Amino acid sequence: MLPYDSQLGPRLACAADLVRPGSRLADVGTDHALLPVSLVRRGVCPSAIASDVRPGPAERARLSVERAGLSSRIQVRVGSGLSVLTPDEADDLVIAGMGGETILSILAASLWIDSSRYRLILQPMSRPELLRRWLRCHGFSILREPAVCAGNRLYTILLCEYRPDAVPVGGKLVEPQDYIGSVDAHDGEASVLYLQKQAQRLQKQAAGLRLSHEYEDQAQAAVLEETSRIILEAAVQRSHHAKDR
Length: 245
Known about the structure:
The chain is α/β, with parallel strands linked by helices. Helix content is 43%, strand content 18%.
């Protein structure tokens, strides 16, 4: 694990830990360029590209890079998603601080990421199950998924690689693994709390569907309730695993 950089905060620090030393970084939605500045300044990455779709955050990123004296090693670009990159410019791709639907739309629009040479480091702020489902259905394996608590919120960061032969593709609309993810047991309380939160979300959705008299809604509620039960069982297993360490 890298020395903690207090400027990053827990969420971005966790993402930084997943970046491979020596890799060229691309940080999509960089805002103030905190992540690329930290990783390049500490010698983890030799170079980086920081991008944002909006000119304002891109300008803030440029000023951060300039103040750090890293303008020769970090490029700041304005553009949408991974369209600002060519396939040979980066090795580790970070997309953090966006909704799961937004992240998957960025990935779906990038035809060159289906290669094992890249590592994807993804941090969805919402709907992580949709992102996991998209990854699963498109041949990406989640290598690690640490959970982290930042403020009053829980997040996971997905470390992914294109491995189509290693990914079981499910056909169900709701797969428990899409909600459980690959949350690391050694993260202890954070991983257990994260799973409990996911189960509560499904229980709430199921309760809403139970108010309907439509057969389809009742059937979907049953699926969500069963998925919630499986997630809670996983939380108990992870809790026991953490206590045994």
